[in-house]
Write a structure and sequence with these properties.
Low-confidence stretches: 1-23, 25-31
Organism: Flavobacterium aquatile LMG 4008 = ATCC 11947
Catalytic activity: a 1,2-diacyl-sn-glycero-3-phosphocholine + H2O = a 2-acyl-sn-glycero-3-phosphocholine + a fatty acid + H(+); a 1,2-diacyl-sn-glycero-3-phosphocholine + H2O = a 1-acyl-sn-glycero-3-phosphocholine + a fatty acid + H(+)
GO biological process, one term: lipid catabolic process
Number of helices: 4
Radius of gyration: 20 Å
Mean pLDDT: 90
Helix content: 10-25%
CATH class: Mainly Beta
Strand order of the largest sheet: 2-3-4-5-6-7-8-9-10-11-12-13
Distance between the termini: 31 Å
Membrane topology: Multi-pass membrane protein
Shape: globular
Largest sheet: 12 strands, antiparallel, barrel
Oligomer: single chain
Protein name: Phosphatidylcholine 1-acylhydrolase
CATH architecture: Beta Barrel
């Protein structure tokens, strides 16, 4: 516990130091983080429409060179006995993590000129780069392709505006063999809301049935939806992603992100996570993790 408190206090101190340092720098030397609006991200208004088959960023792109976890999942289990590991996985508590994510519009102004069809791909990797014993192997790779039908909105609500809604087919898997294979398919609904420096995205989903269910109780642990909150303050971005089952207060997970400018378009990134489902193989495994790295795309 003393070690965990030391890491947490060090990161908190670093955050406050960085914010103070950045705000005291001359404005000419600051590179301002410009938050992309929903309209810019999804080309909702005619001024932002750029046609089809352009590859652009989707979810955040970042590299975390040092990630520490309070509880490594050395015996991944599933409610399906065929997908329960009986062999100890000798993983370290420290590893690297990175995420890549892109999307492309493939059809524009469909459904009476109102909607756009996008395809997207996100890959998240947990890499045991400091583990010589396991030949610095990848502990977990999560692949997430999506097909997204997105529609613009412009509805005033509580001082802000509902700006976008979508429906998506989402597949997520880790590409491993028995007994560590994990996957699921979802229909994901989304509603985006803007107010001041805040962006709010609410994403409930419906899990699709699977004959060979590798993770039968995944919605019990990860949840039935996601709430994504982002706030921009001067040159700093704060983001919270909460997943939660709608019928229980016991499970779910929360990820906290802080992004700050370093030089030019390069930004530092601090990430903390607590709960279930940081990766697919960890869907029913609770842990607390902390990491620091660099970020390349806006939250």
């Amino acid at each position: 516990m003393k070690f965990e408190k030391l890491i947490l206090s060090s990161i908190v101190s670093f955050i406050f130091f960085q914010m103070s340092f950045s705000q005291n720098q001359p404005k000419a030397n600051q590179h301002r983080i410009i938050r992309k609006s929903f309209s810019q991200q999804w080309e909702l208004d005619s001024i932002y429409k750029k046609g089809t088959f352009r590859l652009v960023s989707y979810k955040p792109i970042y590299i975390t060179a040092g990630r520490w976890t309070s509880k490594t999942n050395k015996f991944p289990v599933s409610e399906n006995p065929d997908y329960t590991s009986e062999e100890r996985q000798d993983y370290n508590n420290f590893e690297a993590k990175f995420q890549l994510s892109f999307k492309s519009k493939v059809m524009q102004s469909i459904f009476w000129g109102c909607g756009d069809l996008w395809i997207a791909y996100t890959q998240k990797a947990h890499w045991q780069v400091y583990n010589k014993k396991l030949s610095r192997s990848f502990r977990e790779l999560n692949y997430e392709p999506e097909i997204i039908l997105n529609f613009p909105l412009n509805k005033p609500l509580f001082g802000g505006k509902l700006r976008t809604t979508s429906i998506a087919f989402n597949h997520q898997s880790n590409g491993k063999d028995l007994p560590l294979s994990r996957s699921w398919n979802r229909i994901v609904f989304s509603l985006g809301y803007e107010i001041g420096n805040w962006d709010v995205i609410f994403k409930p989903w419906i899990r699709l049935s699977d004959e060979e269910d590798e993770n039968p109780l995944i919605t019990k642990y990860i949840g039935n939806g996601e709430l994504d909150l982002s706030y921009t303050y001067h040159n700093h971005e704060f983001n919270t992603i909460i997943t939660h089952p709608f019928n229980s207060l016991k499970y779910g997970g929360m990820q906290l992100n802080y992004v700050f400018p370093i030089e030019g378009h390069l930004r530092g990134h601090v990430q903390a996570f607590h709960g279930y489902g940081e990766t697919l193989v960890d869907y029913n495994h609770s842990q607390t993790s902390l990491g620091i790295g660099i970020s390349f795309a806006n939250w």
